[in-house]
Amino acid sequence: MNDSSWGAPPQAGQAGYWGPTERGPVQGAAPAGPAYDAPEAQQTRPMPIVPDGPAYGGDQDDDRGAARTGGPLFRDEDHGAFPGGDGSGFPSGDHGRFPDERYGGRSGSSSAQPHATPQHDSSYVPQNPEPMPEVQPQPAPAPAPQKKSAGRDLGAAIGVGVGLGVVIVASLFVVKAVFVGVVAVAVVVGLWELTSRLQERKQIKAPLVPLAVGGAAMVVAGYVRGAEGAWVAMALTALAVLVWRMTEPPEGYLKDVTAGVFAAFYVPFLATFVALMLTADDGPWRVLTFLLLTVVSDTGAYAVGWRFGTHKLAPRISPGKTREGLLGAVSFAMVAGALCLQFLIDDGTWWQGLLLGLAVAASATLGDLGESMIKRDLGIKDMGTLLPGHGGIMDRLDSLLPTAPVVWLLLVLFVGSG
Hints:
This protein is mainly α. The protein has a domain at 157-415. 52% of the residues lie in helices and 3% in strands. The protein has a two-stranded antiparallel ribbon with strand order 1-2. Helix 4 crosses helix 5 (208-245), helix 6 (253-278) crosses helix 7 (283-308) and helix 6 (253-278) crosses helix 11 (400-415). The radius of gyration is 46 Å and the shape is globular. The termini are far apart.
């Protein structure tokens, strides 16, 4: 960096003046005033050009007697001059904070101070810059209206539902024992989902082994020995839960066995009524009527509620259910019940089907709300992820389980147990 970038050259007698030379006036320097004339200019030698590197190969400038701080952090050619509003090269009021020795000159010597220019300092900021024009904030665009969504993958839900229906109907009308096995497997998986969520969310350890064995035995006993066999299996399952839990520390024993007895009643015992329906002569048609009415009730509630639902049915338990959806469930189930009792069930009549459909819509809705209450208490959306578009097995059994004893009882009252 040559001296022309540091401002006007110093005059004789000032700090840092090197004296005249034989080469003439200083290159690029303007006359200093009236004391400067042509004869003197011929005798004045120019100031030697200072090389960019350290002068004289050392850290001390012998001619100037000023300490030159080494290192790239303070090199003039790397940092240039600090801009200032007083012409000194420093920010206003910062002379004490940035002594002159750091920039190659004597402290207090104004002749050694660099002048900030835009060509030599990238941080140069012009004084009194023009104010930026104010930008008026633009209002955010209105969000596009959201389409009402069912909240699940409808295609996957339909595909899984159709697949389950094919398996159930095929096993129901081919070999009754196979259908009993399907029910027992669904019971065991449902118990596994329920006990797993209880342990994960509430640290309740309901013993799964006695529940699974006793639940499967309960379904088989109901099919083989009727209602009496189902009650005996239920009592033995509860006793097994109490004994099994004794093998672990007593802390939490009461809540664990209480949850185990509840799970035994809620899942396998209610499912046993499906096996009881199957024991009748027209058992497969009774089970099919039970399944059709429950599915139609859920479908009517979903279709009408999604399209016309505005009034919440139980917002604290299940915000998605509406009163319009309940009316849809009742209407669809009553029509389906009249058709099923008239054409599928021996000695059945259409008006009995209307009552049966009304009862199914009520029990299915209460069952759905009951499991929603459990899931809300546990802080979960679904009991599992086994069935795409549906959740878990328990998310499909929620309305079926409490409906099974209702259908079994009304069919026995209407047409007998035959």
